[in-house]
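Example 4.3 (complexes with small molecules)
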Amino acid sequence: MYDKVPTGLDRKETEVYRRLDPARLPKHIAIIMDGNGRWAKRRHLPRVAGHRAGVTAVRSTVETAARIHIPALTLYAFSEENWKKRPKSEVGFLMSLLSRYLKAEVPTLNKNNIRLEYIGRQHELPEDVQERMAWAREATARNSGMVLTLALNYSARSELVDAFRSMVNAAAQNGGLAHLQIDEDTVGRHLYTRNLPDPDLVVRTSGEMRLSNFLLWQLAYAEIYVTPTLWPDFRGLHLLEGIAEYQKRERRYGGLNHGDGHAPLETSSALHERKT
Ligand code: IPE
Ligand code: IPE
Ligand code: MG
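Answer. The structure with IPE bound is encoded below.
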């Protein structure tokens, strides 16, 4: 077992990793990075200090996920609603933080063989940020390891609207709307996430129990892990703990799959027989 621990994990991470079944790691993990503002407030700092501290959490989480060979990691960095509803100064700070993150992080992404992607309405972002994003994507395009997708100006409802529009446009160009055939695969192929498997696990930090318009279609059967840890305090170790919790769950997809640790159906009737 010992030699199978991936290189680069620290002592505590190694301890948690040893409890995991490497054959049942999630293929795609999605994270709602929440609680930056509260982290800053607790320290009597401005909200933006929480966002700045959140970058350390991103770095640690991304590196650990890549080291244990998670094929895809998607981070909800900011929503369309954040963009529209937060003060201009905070949004401006987030934009410049993103730009600086991309510039600083490309060498580390390359070192870890990580390929960068984006989901969200990119064309609504400031042009210089779009250029930086395109540059970082291009600089990591030849990596063959983990796909790191940043959700920027993302809204799941907008994604679905864009997918429906794209289906209609594609049909119009291919013989007209009479040929429009819609099923689940068709919708999936028109989503921003068309090249990714659906997430197996969605993590939300800071204790909030909602999806906040994140990947509504794709999370249909994802396991949900909510941790009270605020995003700036989150590290690779916390991700591994979330995966350990995920591996304890029994996924049923609507069926009757009584796996390990769950009483088979016969038990209740056997009990009933003994009583009567
Ligand atoms: C998450 O932290 C980061 C973004 C949404 C950009 P918040 O800024 O939502 O922090 P809280 O929820 O106010 O603590
Ligand atoms: C969700 O967090 C969006 C991101 C983490 C980017 P919010 O803080 O915006 O969500 P609500 O407003 O609490 O639902
Ligand atoms: Mg929040």
